[in-house]
Structure formats: structure tokens, C-alpha cells
Amino acid sequence: MNTNLVFENSQALILQQALLGAISENVRLITFQVDEGCIVVNCIIENESKSDQEEFEDLISEIEALQSKPINIDVKVKVSKETIFLNQVKGRPIFFRKEPQ
Q1: What is the pLDDT of residue 1?
Q2: Among 17, 81, 95, 98, which residue's CB has the most CB atoms within a 10 Å radius?
């Protein structure tokens, strides 16, 4: 099996575990990608939220704690109410909120 895919799959599981209990109703989408040895987590929230920002800051520590060796982690948060199309987002989806019709 491709070692890059194995690594990405393990990071997906680590991210899911790190996010347990951290996703509020304000969170619309979370994706991640591995970029030159760095894990980039992309988050879209509906409204600016200090508590969500704090959760995403804590997420870095949670991810680091689950790694077998040091790795760079970058969490990017975007505030947007625009329609999200999965085929237009960067990275591998980890969470996608069911949007009102």
C-alpha cells in the first residue's frame, strides 16, 4: 500500500479523535491535507466565535499528542456563510455539517 496514503489515513483518524467534543453547531466544514510534511487543517465556521477559535487552537495540541513523532500542524479558520460545495474545497473532508435547505 502507498505509504503516503497510509500516513494520510492515520492522520484522518487522529484528527477525528482530536475533534471529539470540539465541534460546535457553528462549525460547517473541516478538511485536512498533508502538504510537504505539514498537516493543514481547514475549518469553515458560520459566525466569528471566540470559543470556536479557542477549540481550534487547542486542536493543535490534541493532534500533536497523538503523533508518534513531531510534525508541523497549521489550522486555518475561515468565517463564511456562502454555500459550500465539497468538490470545491481543499483537502480531505473530515466533517461536513448538514446545511438547511
Answers
A1: 67
A2: 95
Provide the residue type at 30 as one letter. Answer: I
CA distance 66 to 2: 22
Domains and CATH numbers, the chain: 3-96 (3.30.300)
Based on the number of CB atoms within 10 Å of its own CB, is 1 exposed (0-12), middle (13-18) or buried (19 or more)? exposed
Q: Give helix 50-65 / helix 3-19 axis angle, nearest 10°.
A: 130
Give the pTM.
Answer: 0.92
- CB-CB contact of 15 with 32 (8 Å): yes
Q: Are 32 and 52 in contact (CB under 8 A)?
A: no
Chain mean position to CA 62: 12
Q: How far is CA 50 from the centre of its chain?
A: 17
All residues at 6 or more sequence positions from 25 whose CB lies less than 8 Å from its CB, including other chains: 97
